[in-house]
Amino acid sequence: MTDKSPAQPPEAQSWIPQFRACYDQAVRRFERGHRGPDNVIAPESLALLDSIGTSARELYDFVEDLVEDGEPDFDTVAAITAIRRAYFLTVQQGKPSSRRVPSATLPSGYAELGGYRWLPRIIAKARAKLRGELSPDMMFGCGADRPFLRRVHMEPAEFLQVVWDAGTDDHQILEAVRNRAK
């Protein structure tokens, strides 16, 4: 993960209107009582999701949290997805990983790094998100991640970018968190 994300030319954002339409349709379906990725994410959206390195499950989780918890909003979801997409297209060269990171292998939510409880877990989740390796029972930016990120004054996409830029250097991530938390 030592590759840095490239600057994004304007045409690199051309997927966002399609993603927005897919997202809005999923929100409407969820609000009408449909549940589960297969019932909420339209089949015609799957090719788009594959092309940007995300899954129906990941989009469903964001939609579910928005409708049930009021967050994250579309701009947050799009920002997270843009970083994952850039990683997918540059580092992974558009090839999805076949690996899944089981939630049981993540650090405990009680684990600490530099006095920050939850930081080791969210770092591991962010790395798995970047690689597209989150197991279906996990979500980066979930209801437990968001309060941690608010406490350290970071947006989910900002944290994801910090993790990408830091590669395997947890102390670089810790320093970025400390600097933002001040």
Structural account:
By secondary structure, the chain is mainly α. It has one domain. It is 55% helix and 2% strand. The protein has a two-stranded antiparallel sheet with strand order 1-2. The mean pLDDT is 94.
What layout of secondary structure does this protein have?
Blueprint: H1 16-31, H2 37-40, H3 46-51, H4 56-69, H5 74-90, E1 112-113, E2 116-117, H6 119-131, H7 145-151, H8 156-166, H9 170-181
Antiparallel strand pairs: 1-2
Helix pairs in contact: 1-4, 5-8, 6-8, 8-9
Strand content: under 5%
> How many structural domains does the protein architecture include?
1
Report the C-alpha radius of gyration, rounded. 16 Å
Q: Fraction of residues in helices?
A: 40-55%
Strand arrangement, major sheet: 1-2
**Structural shape:** globular
The structural class is: mainly alpha
User: What is the first-to-last residue Cα distance?
Assistant: 27 Å
Largest sheet: 2 strands, antiparallel
Order of helices and strands: HHHHHEEHHHH
Mean pLDDT: 94
Brief sketch in words of this structure:
The chain is mainly alpha-helical. The protein has nine helices and two strands; from the N terminus they run αααααββαααα.
Descriptive key words:
about 180 residues; mainly alpha; two-stranded antiparallel ribbon; about 55% helix; about 0% strand
